[in-house]
Structure prediction request, 172 residues.
Amino acid sequence: MEETMYRRFQRVLTAVMLTAVAGVGSTLVASPASAHPVSWGWSDNHTLCTQSWCVRNGNVVRMWQAILWVDGFDNGQGTGFIDGGYGTNTHNQTFQYQYTYIGDNQSDGEVGPITWGFAQRFCDDWISGSYTYYVYCGQPSGTRTMQMRENRSTGEWSFVNPRTGAWTGSSH
Prediction:
């Protein structure tokens, strides 16, 4: 137990240090004027799925794919999995994530309020300036992490894309 807490502390400390080093010089990738960014609470995020009524492309999909990547649900593709398209591969990996961690009765391959809310449980957060920062540490014994932040004034989200290492807006 102590070792697990110690490893989690190390990951959070590393993320805080990365934020301090990169925070001043990093830039948020601007979203096009017609984009719809993710805003406010986790459970308020857009539903992601392969159907036409869902969000199927964009940075919010990349953000979810990065969460899957942290937990090892990347189908062996590494950061190449984070492509911004909610296709069959992302659907199948989401289904496996849900089946493994949330339960069979919640496994539909869609990322809705329950799945977003569940993922939030594996974050550490802190407030710094105008942002609430989150480090997604993944399931117990995970070795990867991902940073996200929410603008406390606008509610808009951004994340450090593990594929590029850059802060990325959450628009679609």
Remarks:
- The CA atoms of residues 44 and 154 lie 14 Å apart.
- The radius of gyration is 15 Å.
- DSSP finds four helices and five strands in the chain.
